[in-house]
Amino acid sequence: MQNRLRHITITLTLLALTSSCVIIYNIPNISDHKIFPYRVIKNAPESIFYFSESDALNNFGKVILTHYDKLLPNVETLDDCIERSKTAAFIIIRNDTILYEKYNGKYQENSIFNTFSVTKAFITTLVGIAIDEGMIKSVDQKITDYIPELSEREGFNEITVRHLLLHTSGIKFSDSKFNPFSDNSKYYYGRNLRKLVLKAEANGRAGAETHYNSINVQLLGMILERATGTTLSAFLQEKIWQKIGMQYEAIWSLDNKRENSFEKS
User: Fold this and answer.
1) Rounded to two decimals, what is the model's pTM?
2) Fewest Cβ atoms nearer than 10 Å: which of 40, 220, 224, 260?
3) Per-residue model confidence as pLDDT tens digits over 170-188
């Protein structure tokens, strides 16, 4: 009984921390990198790839756009559309040439942005690289091969890397960003993501249906970490960021300030 009470107390404390973060920071936004600890992803100055610029750079901004509202067209330029929508950064690239580039307000080409689910594209690319280099056998490998702690949980022995990639894992996940007790809030503000993912529950049969959710990619991050023996930031820096010639450094938000902190995937 005492152990159970202690567990309830700890659970309530964690829920209180999560809900307080939601109340303090409100709805997630592109400046949230300022509230989380992070690792730096360094570029390679000697290998930067510089895009060419079109002779008619930003002429696209004068292009007329037509929006239909109740069958009546509203006309504005691309420049006006971006300013009205408060889009922080907008860029059009064709091949190796920048055709259009516009930033709003305080944002510039070297500004740091919270990329949210764009991170999923980097994670899945890193999975492909890890498979290509033999660190992960294949997309059909069971996730419990890398996270054996989940083998005791019902339904997890059937989940493969492919299921996580396609969001067909059948793992339960509530995604309401307005609910401080949702899984989305717990993962976004969570301070121990490795521990949190091990409490995941299967809500259906793997492969049965698609349910886009962030826990799938957090699990892929954990698999990558164990398969590569390094942090996600270091793996991204080596295999993608420096190889494709990124002009600026990046940062990757972490779940806590400890040395063994885990990237938010």
Assistant:
1) 0.85
2) 260
3) 999 987 666 777 888 889 9
